[in-house]
């Protein structure tokens, strides 16, 4: 499911561009193919163009250039109400003057479904989100999480094949959000629908998605599975945006297959995994995950002297800010295993990392 | 006392107590009293102002509508001394039931009272009071009082000799009614009804009915003006609500512009526009739509009142609707569209129902303002564009029948209150947003 050929794609964006003012492009040359039944997340900071893409797919914005197809037919000129796409909004957009059941019946009613059939479908949809007893309530009488479930049920009740979600969990507290993530994930698996999900929360994206498209500056920076995205970021933006990341600047001195040899600014040398196309003599940005750093390493490939500057207690782990290669902001996550001797501020020690965990990206 | 071994914050009756044993309720009340006192002091000036300028005058007006002592009490203009008048006649009324033919004793009482009136120079006052109920009575009183000193027994013949109108049963009925300062006769008059000499309450002749028709016209025209304001205002409010803030602020100035112009100027400019030699007619004649002899009469009739008042009251409709529409997130419409609704269905089922609080508030505001509107109909209404308020003003300023004016105004007030109550029952007052 991770790789979908263009001609089999359920949803495809083909060279899509979007501009609001005729001067700047909000979406620049977007090519994206989403397979049937896939859960694809558009992840990015605000203003990166992800929501605009969703709105173009839903039909509330028109593409300035390019073509969007749904199940093989171009939808640029199809009005939103004929696209048959379910949508969940950030603020749920439950109609406040209708009861929950009326909200759910609305999409069926406008499709001309009969009353008995409608009632059955509404009851089914309410049961699906475990809200069977709440049909008579008004949206304002529900908690945030309950409203969210109703919004979900409403987007699914007319059995669309594609459901769009625009930061649907943004307004919920942390625990509820995590709980809802699993519920949405399970619903997706059970119903076999295609989901396009927009969020700026990376942990949400990693938890739920089959594939994640990381947006920045109107472009997809990387489109990959959550694991690939975290383990193998292709550029500095993705490395920075997904998870935590230590940055070290260095100069490439030699390239040896997958491995680059670098010289840090303080004169010391090391090796890293070649990711970006950098030539000898160019500057490169080395990215190392805080949890991939080992204290007092036994094999000394990338061993380097470090000084502990600050310790922050996090319960399951301890964050340790160190000075490494002249960088004061180098973070190391030390697991709280109990057996280890405690670190102290001002302590000097040696740390190291495997070459494959240090990725040489474009500077 | 509290059982300290059990839950210390609950006594036997289950009443909650604080840690030191005080009842929780009184403790809370004490804690809140300070804040409440401070709040009360802050609103006191306004409360006093409202009391003096609103509650007291309205109370006085309501009192005046059921109380008129023109027939029972004379207050000297020079020294303010109050003298009971018509005492003898009132005694006779007390002794004889309604419908009794006035006998010699009645006429004697009348003459005695008229002599006192002459002394107090008050026949005009009493005549005016009876005149409200029975027109033509004022001159009867002044004329007879002038000759009262010379009248001798038998008084019945003597008085009838002065004027035969004294024999009319309606006149005696009116005097009996007026002999009690507390009366509902002004309310009866305000709904075109009267009391017969036999004491029955009946409608007055069809050709003398004024007020009921005027009330109906006032309500009908107000409803029409409210409807027109809604039809004209809704698209404007919607436009203001969906436009970007900068453009909508500019347009809002245009909506508010009339507020910065004197009401009189706006009304008279409608006179300039709409009169038969006015701009609108001139343009239509010039364009050949109507002939010079076929100029449309749009001023000094109902059309003038409707047009001018709709224009003047339009902002009161637009503003509440706008403030409600502004708060409706566009995502509702989007959600409806994504769920398969056409744009018309979205408007009808999703957008419009949510604007109802604003429509209700605006309609309520416009309707209540229109019901009591005075200056515009007075200037442009002619005769058939007059509203009830114009007649209230007439009774206040010209006929000086303040009790009738008060009764008419009170009926208007009750009518509006009933509408308000109905509205609360049907739509719900908490469903109304004024901004």
What does this structure look like?
The complex is a heterodimer of chains A (363) and B (435). Chain A has 363 residues and is an alpha+beta fold. Chain A is built from 8 helices and 20 strands. In chain A, strands 6-7-8-3-9-10 form a 6-stranded mixed beta sheet, with helices on both faces. In chain A, helix 2 packs across helix 3 and helix 2 runs parallel beside helix 4. The radius of gyration of chain A is 25 Å and the shape is elongated. The model of chain A has no long low-confidence stretch (mean pLDDT 88). Chain B has 435 residues and is an all-alpha fold. Chain B folds into 3 domains: 1-66, no CATH class; 73-208, no CATH class; 211-431, Orthogonal Bundle (MetI-like fold), CATH 1.10.3720. Chain B has 18 helices and 4 strands. In chain B, the strands form 2 sheets. A two-stranded antiparallel ribbon of chain B has the order 1-2. Chain B has a two-stranded antiparallel sheet with strand order 3-4. In chain B, helix 2 (87-95) packs antiparallel against helix 3 (104-120) and helix 17 packs antiparallel against helix 18 (402-426). The longest helix of chain B has 43 residues, at 24-66. Chain B is extended, with a radius of gyration of 32 Å. The model of chain B is unreliable at 1-11 (pLDDT under 50). The A-B interface holds A 58-60, 79-87, 89-91, 93-97, 106-107, 110-111, 154-155, 158, 164 and B 329, 331-332, 334-343, 345, 349-350, 353-354. Chain B: Pfam families: BPD_transp_1 (PF00528). Chain B: Residues 215-423 form the ABC transmembrane type-1 domain.
């Amino acid at each position: 499911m991770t790789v979908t050929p263009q001609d089999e794609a359920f949803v495809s964006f083909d060279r899509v561009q979007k501009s609001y003012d005729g001067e700047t492009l909000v979406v620049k040359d977007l090519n994206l193919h989403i397979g049937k039944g896939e859960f694809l997340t558009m992840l990015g900071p605000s203003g990166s163009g992800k929501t605009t893409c969703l709105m173009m797919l839903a039909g509330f914005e028109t593409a300035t250039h390019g073509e969007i197809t749904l199940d093989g037919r171009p939808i640029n000129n199809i009005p939103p109400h004929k696209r048959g796409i379910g949508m969940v909004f950030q603020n749920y957009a439950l109609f406040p003057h209708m009861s929950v059941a009326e909200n759910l019946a609305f999409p069926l009613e406008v499709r001309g479904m009969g009353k008995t059939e409608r009632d059955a479908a509404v009851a089914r949809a309410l049961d699906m989100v475990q809200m069977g007893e709440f049909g008579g309530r008004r949206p304002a009488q529900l908690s945030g999480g309950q409203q969210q479930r109703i919004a979900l049920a409403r987007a699914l009740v007319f059995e669309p094949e594609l459901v769009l979600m625009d930061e649907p969990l943004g307004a919920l507290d942390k625990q509820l959000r995590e709980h809802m993530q699993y519920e949405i994930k399970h619903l997706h698996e059970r119903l076999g629908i295609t989901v396009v999900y927009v969020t700026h929360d990376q942990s949400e994206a990693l938890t739920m998605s089959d594939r994640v498209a990381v947006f920045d500056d109107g472009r997809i920076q990387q489109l990959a599975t959550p694991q690939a995205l975290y383990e193998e970021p292709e550029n500095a933006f993705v490395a920075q945006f997904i998870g935590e990341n230590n940055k070290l600047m260095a100069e490439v001195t030699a390239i040896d297959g997958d491995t680059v040899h670098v010289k840090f600014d303080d004169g010391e040398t090391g090796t890293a995994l070649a990711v970006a196309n950098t030539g000898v003599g160019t500057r490169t940005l080395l990215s190392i995950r805080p949890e991939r750093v080992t204290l007092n390493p036994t094999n000394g490939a990338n061993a380097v002297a470090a000084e502990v500057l600050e310790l922050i207690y996090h319960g399951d782990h301890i964050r340790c800010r160190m000075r490494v290669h002249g960088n004061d902001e180098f973070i190391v996550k030390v697991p709280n295993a109990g057996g280890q001797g405690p670190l102290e501020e001002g302590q000097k020690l040696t740390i190291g990392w495997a070459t494959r965990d240090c990725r040489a990206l474009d500077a | 006392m509290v059982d300290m071994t059990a839950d210390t914050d609950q006594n036997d009756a289950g009443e909650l107590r604080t840690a030191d044993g005080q009842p929780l309720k009184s403790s809370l009340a004490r804690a809140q009293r300070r804040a409440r006192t401070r709040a009360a002091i802050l609103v006191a000036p306004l409360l006093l102002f409202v009391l003096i300028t609103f509650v007291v005058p309205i109370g006085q007006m309501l009192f005046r509508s059921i109380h008129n002592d023109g027939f029972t009490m004379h207050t000297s203009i020079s020294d303010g001394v109050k003298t009971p008048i018509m005492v003898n006649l009132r005694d006779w009324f007390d002794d004889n039931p309604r419908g009794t033919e006035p006998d010699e004793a009645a006429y004697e009482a009348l003459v005695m009272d008229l002599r006192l009136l002459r002394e107090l120079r008050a026949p005009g006052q009493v005549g005016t009071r009876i005149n409200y109920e029975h027109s033509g009575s004022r001159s009867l009183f002044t004329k007879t009082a002038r000759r009262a000193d010379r009248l001798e027994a038998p008084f019945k013949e003597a008085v009838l000799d002065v004027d035969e109108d004294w024999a009319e049963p309606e006149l005696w009925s009116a005097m009996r009614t007026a002999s009690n300062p507390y009366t509902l006769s002004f309310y009866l008059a305000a709904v075109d009804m009267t009391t017969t000499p036999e004491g029955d309450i009946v409608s007055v002749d069809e050709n003398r009915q004024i007020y009921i028709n005027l009330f109906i016209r006032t309500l009908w025209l107000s409803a029409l003006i409210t409807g027109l304001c809604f039809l004209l205002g809704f698209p404007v409010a919607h436009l203001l609500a969906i436009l970007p803030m900068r453009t909508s602020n500019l347009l809002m100035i245009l909506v508010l512009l009339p507020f910065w112009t004197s009401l009189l100027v706006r009304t008279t400019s409608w006179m300039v526009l709409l009169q038969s030699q006015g701009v609108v007619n001139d343009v239509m004649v010039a364009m050949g739509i109507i002939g010079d002899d076929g100029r449309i009469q749009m001023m000094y009739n109902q059309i003038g009142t409707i047009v001018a008042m709709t224009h003047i009251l339009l902002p009161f409709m637009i503003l509440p609707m706008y403030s409600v529409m502004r708060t409706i997130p566009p995502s509702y419409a989007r959600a409806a569209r994504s769920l398969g609704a056409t744009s018309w269905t979205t408007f009808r089922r999703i957008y419009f129902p949510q604007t109802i609080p604003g429509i209700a508030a605006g309609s309520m505001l416009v309707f209540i303002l229109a019901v009591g509107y005075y200056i515009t109909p007075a200037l442009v209404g002619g005769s058939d564009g007059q509203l009830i308020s114009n007649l209230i003003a007439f009774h206040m300023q010209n006929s000086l029948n303040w009790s009738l004016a008060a009764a008419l105004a009170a009926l208007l007030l009750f009518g509006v209150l009933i509408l308000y109550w109905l509205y609360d029952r049907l739509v719900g007052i908490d469903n109304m947003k004024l901004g």
